[in-house]
Amino acid sequence: EALGGKMALLQRRWFGHATESYTLEDAPYAAIAGSVEFNRVTHENSLKWETIEPQPGVFNFTLGDKLIAWADANDQAVRGHTLVWHSQLPNWINNPAVPWTAATLKPVLENHVRTVVRHYKGKIDQWDVVNEMFNEDGTFRDTIFYRLFGSDYARWALTWAHEEDPDALLFINDYNFEYLGPKVNSAAAFFKSLVNEGYPLGAVGAQAHLIVGQVDEAGITAGLKKFTEFGLLLYLTEVDIRYEIGRGNDIANYTTSQVGQQAKDYYSVTKACLNVPNCIGMTLWQYTDKYSWIPGVWAGTGAALPWDVRLNKKPAYTAMYEAILEQ
Ligand code: G3I
Question: Is there a contact between 270 and 7 (Cβ–Cβ < 8 Å)?
């Protein structure tokens, strides 16, 4: 009984989790994280720019490498998250006193992308090259990169990453990529143009931070298909399904029907991926409520993962398992 094993063997798909070397110091947690439940892992934070290039041109791969060694030891492939993102940038970039121009920032961006991909060549086979570049209305997000370069920064980053590691599968990743709407429509049109122009975009990451009671299998299937109909692969990169109601992060505080609804929702999102031939897998954003980012951002809510705060499996786990077995 292991989700990763089943996905890999029966479906030839990935079932992953996000973690960090600091959460892996918790031994009971690490035992599950390193088990055959998972065949792929993502660094939750430690490959982000502020951590990996804290000073201009000075790279610190310590935490990143630690998780790679752990993944190796536990036979898990690694998703790289993330090369270009407006959030968790180091202060030396986010500094209002530094008047960045296209001419000064472009070589910094190039050096960052190339150095990180080169360092992990052969160790990281999927990269979130650009993260969260769209607004909800489908326009490009106004970031330091977009202001200086327009959407070209995505074209350049894909090209640099591909030159450094031609074998890596390159992604553009975002949230609210699950259902049809203005964001999915214009992102898909942009991705189609990148593919037609010959840029090495290989896949779309749909983060899938979802809400209990708002998960619809047919709706997600249609949304994901919008990205795959012109050949791209698709991955659900950061799955969690949180409660919006204020019963906290412990599933013991929720009613049987609320727990059942979350299980249904995990079933639906798993089915949606399995419905789409190009959906190659899903990754939980931490597998347990114990280390979820959600209560830190939405106080009083949470309980979003298939394992609870005590590391016990919830009905959501069994529901995903059933969805996979049905395939
Ligand atoms: O490391 C410091 C620690 O030294 C300090 O004592 C502590 C005090 O707040 O903060 C720690 O850093 C926190 C870090 O997580 C590690 O725990 C940051 O404050 C906190 O902002 C950071 O949050 C992360 C968040 O990205 C930042 O935007 C979450 O863990 C991480 O799960 C979340 O992941 C993002 C994906 O990258 C992109 N998609 C959305 C997703 C959820 O927000």
Answer: no
CA 50 / ligand 1 centre spacing (Å): 11
CATH number of domain containing 214: 3.20.20.80
Distance 86 CA to ligand 1 centre (A): 14
The count of domains in the chain is 1
pLDDT tens per residue across span 145-157 = 999 999 999 999 9
- Supply the ipTM of this predicted assembly: 0.94
Our answer on whether the CB atom of 293 is closer than 6 Å to any ligand 1 atom is yes
| Selection from 249, 273, 258 nearest residue 316 by Cα | 258
- pLDDT exceeds 90 at position 6: no
Closest protein CA for atom 22 of ligand 1:
45
**Cis ω on the peptide bond leading into residue 82 (within 30° of 0)?**
yes
43: which 2 tokens? 């660094």
